Amino acid sequence: MLRVILQPRGACREALHSDTLFGLLCWAVRQVYGNARLEELLAGFAAGEPPFLLSSAFPYRAGDNDAPVWFLPMPRLPRDAGWGPETEAVRKEFGTCAWIPWELFGRLAAGQTSLSRIAGEGTWRHWRPPELRVQLRPRARIDRLSGTTDQSGRLFASPEMHVLNGGLYFLVDGAASGWLEGAVAFLNDFGWGGQNSAGLSHFAARLEPSAPLPAPPRPARLMTLSLYHPRADELAALRHPEARYELVRRKGKVGGHFLHTPELDTPDFWKRAVMMVAPGSTFPPLPGHRWYGDNPVVKGHADGLPFQVQQYGYALTAGMLAAEGE
Predict the structure, then answer these.
(1) For residue range 147-158, what is the model confidence (pLDDT) as tens digits?
(2) Could you tell me which of 162, 172, 94, 93 has the C-alpha nearest to residue 130?
C-alpha cells in the first residue's frame, strides 16, 4: 500500500474525495501514458476487478521531530456498553471529533479499546488534528465574449479550504509501480482540483510506503475509507442493525481542461447524481466478497458520448473486531 502525501502550496477548491482523486489520476494517466493505458485501467473497474483501490484524502499533522501524525475518519459505531447516563456530556463533546489518530484506530480495530474508553481517558482533547478551515472568496463574474465583468458587475463567492498546521494524504492499494509516480508528477505541475488555473488546489505531492490497514481474519465490521457506491447485492450489509453510515449525494461535471470533444459542445455537461456512503461508515462484511462497490456509469453512450464516464465507487476498507463490552 502506498501513501500519497499532499503538502499544501495554498488553499484548495474543495475536499478531495476518492471519486475526485480517481478522476484526476485518470486524466493524468491519459496525458502522460496515452488513452490506451487509461482504457486498460478502466476496463478492470468495469469488469469488477479493480486494478487499484484508493481512499479519500485525510489530514495529517507534523509531529515532534517532523514525524507526521496521520488521522483517519472517526468510525461510526453502535454505542457500546461503556456509555452510561453519567458520561452523556462527555459523549456529546467527544462526538464532535471528526478524526482519530492512525495508531489509536489500530487499537480500536483490534478490539483492544472502545470509543467509550477512549472518551473516558480524555487524551482525545490533545490530538490536535489539522484544522480544515473553509472560507468564502469573493470573485467577479466574467463575460466570456468580452473578457471583462458583465454590465451588472455581479459578484459571487466560492469556497476555499485551508489546511492549517499540516496537510492531506490518501492511500492507494494495488497500484502498479510506474504509472502512479508519473501521474502524481503531472498533477504536481497541473494542479489537484478545481480552480487550479486561479492558483487553488496546488500541492507538492510525494509517495511513500504505508503501513497496512487493519485486516483481521474474521472482522465484525468493515469501515470504508472511500466514497462507496454499494452494488444491489451489498445493500443487505447496510440494512443490518449493526450498520452505521452516512449518505452523500455526488454530482459533477464531465471533462475539464483536458477534454476537447465536439460531442461535448453542449450545455448538458453534468453527470448523473449518485448516492454514496461516506468515509467512516461501518457495516458487517458479506460472505465471499473480495471487493465492495462498483464504478457506476454516470454519462456515456446513452447520452451520445463516444465513451462511458465512470464514477469511482469502490471501497478501500479497514477491518474491525468488536471491542470488549460491545
Answers:
(1) 666 665 577 666
(2) 162
